Amino acid sequence: MKTGNGRAVLLIAGLAAATLAEPADAQRRSDGYPRVGNPRVFVGGGLTFANPVGDFALFVDDGWGFDTHLRVAADPAGLLSLRLNAGFIQYGRERQSVCLSITVGCRIVTDLVTTNNIAYLDAGPEVGVNFGALRPYAGVSAGLAYFQTSSSLSDFDDWGHEYDVFETTNFDDLVMAWRARTGVQFRVGGRRNPVFLDFATVWHNNGEAEYLTRGDIEDHPDGSITVYPTYSEANLVTYQFGVSVGLGGGSGDEDDDRRRRRRRR
Known about the structure:
Largest sheet: 8 strands, antiparallel, barrel
Structural class: alpha+beta
Strand content: over 45%
Low-confidence stretches: 1-37
CATH architecture: Beta Barrel
Distance between the termini: 60 Å
CATH topology: Porin
Order of helices and strands: HEHEEEEEEEEEEEH
Helix content: 10-25%
Shape: elongated
Strand order of the largest sheet: 1-2-3-4-5-6-7-12
Number of helices: 3
């Protein structure tokens, strides 16, 4: 390698190292705690792609949903936290045109929408390490998973937005569940309230559950229905992309300024 090229490479490497190290150094006071933006409470949420695994994959297709979280750090560096998660996944949706009722007949036709959903809630410990703007983390949690199939009539408002009316739960099941989560956060801004992009993979161990899939509801001429639930393991893996925001972060610089003003007095 030529000498000029070698110097250029070393210069670029040094600038890159300084850029990565700056967030960590800028956030440290003399006592070792974060200097700027040191919140203990984080909230966030994002989109979720669900991939059924094992026996569940034999009966259910991929799904989409959302996930929200509340994380409370037990120490200033955020090495150990308690995390509360809540989310919703829709793994099936069916739409069909039906007569409004037996009395009215087919003079009025409407859309009947049936959805297959999973709602979940869990809490547990999380461990994370800050490397400048990068924070990898992992955790486990325990909670509930609620499998639910509901039907409703679909309608549209004056602005063309669809909404559901007369929603009825056709079948549901509530099971205990545990989850394992691993992910990485990238800090993208904020001083008092740091903002992170959040990427995570979550294993949902729901054990065995009863649930409905497309075609598991049979309609009868008299208006009654018969459901044919499936009973199997209902585990899945979700891939999540979202944001996490720190709340109530203080500024070490402001604290230092106050101390200097007191000394001058």
